[in-house]
Recover the amino acids of this structure.
């Protein structure tokens, strides 16, 4: 049975220069698609992969990654707010289809409720100081 | 009874001045009564923070070796074109400038992620900015090309000069059409889907001094986190518009041209801003102190969002076609409540300028005055008032016919 999953891999510093994904693909006969990768030599690496293959091979591949010391998470896209860039203007308030933004009556600052967010991304280009960011 | 500016400045110097923000004064005067409040209060501070498109900065880069005459040549800062039409080493960058290769609205709505406003923000933040310039050579200025990083700390003068800021009230925007529109007033949903507004209301400088009794040319102000001055009335200064009984203009009215040392400023109050489908601009923080010289002046600072009326304009048709006609009039108290009712429909509202940061600016200016580091100046000349006869004219278009052979 074929399976296809999106996963987030976090490589600790000691693994960054090892050919782990190469082995994953070759030794377990999996196809992959890189959705995002940021790997800096001598630092932590992050990779978002879509992996497709036989269920058994997929499970063995994940076991291999675990054993190698790679941290694995299911893909979780989320929109976050860069607090340094947000000016609390409020342009996002009516733009958001699910009302994830609201105005605090006291401080007049804009509150962002990430739990309400459906990750549609409308606010990302709509935010005048570009404070909203999409993360994998 | 009157107070003089000298008395107020003396108290500021002694650290004894009583300073309240334009929000605080309302409750204070209510509690104490106008007469008692007038005796006690020296200064009321105002603040506003929002996109102000007619902003820009000029600076002098110093002379290169060999010398180069930028004037009449071309110059780019982080790929954004600057105006090179002055002497050898001076440049001006406008907030709305875009890189030549920005796709604009070719794929609508354009993103407009980077432009002149962002260059100004990065300069103020102390970041290196790429300068690339070309020019023609002369005997005294032979150099023709320059490609170098520049940094604000190395510039001889770096000056923010905004030809129109701090609008005294402004249009409230709505969309009567059946498709989403992308405007400088933000994204407007079809069929009156939302309303956007853009003023600091009761904190806004010119709404607290509606007849320009204390704010004039030469007034010292908070500008972009530093100290600046009112240089002139802003372009499109239009004091004669319809006003409420309290003197509050019902639409865009007075404006300020402001100037200040960019090197003192803070990127928290000068933020590069992108309006989807419209362009780039600069969000500017301005605060103006109002010396309480008379009860009349104090009375004007007691304005609240209930007293300020905004005119709702259709940005799908009336605005672009320069057609008069208002959809409705609403108060800023209604707008700030998050929804207004027009023609029986409940419409959500949003602001494009930051009320919390406007409040922060009024508070910061208050603390400068309380500490004795910021004295109030008397204007050297007044802004044109309601009796000046000054009003904004639309463009007087005189088409050039085909018979004008000399142009061909």
């Amino acid at each position: 049975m074929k399976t296809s999953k999106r996963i987030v891999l976090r490589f600790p510093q000691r693994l960054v220069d090892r050919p782990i994904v190469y082995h994953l693909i070759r030794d377990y006969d999996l196809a992959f698609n890189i959705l995002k990768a940021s790997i800096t030599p001598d630092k932590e690496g992050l990779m978002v992969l879509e992996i497709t293959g036989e269920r058994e091979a997929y499970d063995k591949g994940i076991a291999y990654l675990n054993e190698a010391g790679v941290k694995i998470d299911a893909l979780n896209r989320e929109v976050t707010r860069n607090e340094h860039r947000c000016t609390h203007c409020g342009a996002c308030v009516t733009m958001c289809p699910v009302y994830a933004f609201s105005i605090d009556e006291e401080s007049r600052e804009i509150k962002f409720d990430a739990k309400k967010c459906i990750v549609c991304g409308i606010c990302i280009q709509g935010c005048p100081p570009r404070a909203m960011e999409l993360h994998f | 009874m009157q107070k003089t500016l000298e008395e107020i400045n003396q108290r500021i110097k002694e650290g004894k001045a009583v300073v309240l923000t334009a929000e605080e004064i309302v409750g204070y005067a209510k509690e104490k009564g106008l007469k008692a409040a007038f005796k006690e209060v020296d200064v009321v501070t105002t603040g506003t923070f929002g996109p102000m498109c007619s902003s820009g900065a000029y600076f002098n880069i110093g002379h290169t070796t060999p010398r180069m005459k930028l004037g009449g040549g071309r110059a780019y800062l982080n790929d954004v074109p600057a105006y090179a039409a002055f002497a050898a080493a001076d440049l001006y960058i406008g907030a709305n400038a875009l890189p030549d290769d920005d796709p604009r609205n070719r794929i609508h709505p354009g993103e407009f992620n980077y432009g002149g406003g962002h260059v100004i923000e990065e300069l103020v933040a102390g970041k290196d900015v790429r300068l690339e310039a070309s020019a023609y050579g002369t005997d005294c200025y032979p150099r023709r090309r320059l490609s170098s990083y520049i940094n604000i700390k190395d510039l001889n003068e770096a000056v923010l000069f905004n030809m129109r800021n701090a609008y005294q009230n402004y249009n409230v925007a709505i969309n009567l059409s059946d498709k989403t529109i992308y405007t400088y007033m933000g994204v407007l949903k079809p069929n009156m889907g939302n309303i956007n507004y853009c003023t600091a209301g009761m904190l806004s400088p010119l709404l607290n001094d509606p007849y320009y009794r204390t704010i004039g040319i030469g007034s010292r102000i908070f500008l972009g986190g530093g100290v600046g001055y009112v240089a002139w009335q802003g372009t499109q200064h239009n004091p004669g518009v319809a006003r409420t009984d309290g003197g509050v203009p019902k639409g865009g009215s007075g404006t300020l041209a402001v100037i200040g040392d960019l090197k003192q400023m803070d990127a928290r109050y000068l933020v590069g801003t992108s309006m989807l489908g419209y362009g780039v601009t600069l969000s500017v923080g301005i605060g103006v102190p109002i010396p309480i010289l008379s009860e009349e002046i104090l009375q004007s600072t007691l304005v609240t969002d209930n007293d300020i009326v905004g005119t709702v304009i259709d940005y799908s048709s009336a605005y672009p076609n320069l057609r008069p006609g208002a959809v409705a009039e609403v108060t800023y108290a209604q707008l700030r409540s998050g929804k207004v009712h027009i023609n029986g429909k409940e419409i959500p509202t949003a602001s494009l300028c930051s009320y919390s940061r406007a409040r922060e600016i009024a508070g910061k200016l208050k603390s400068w005055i309380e500490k004795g580091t910021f004295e109030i100046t008397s204007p050297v000349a007044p802004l044109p008032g309601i009796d000046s006869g000054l009003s904004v004219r639309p463009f007087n278009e005189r088409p050039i016919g085909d018979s004008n052979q000399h142009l061909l």
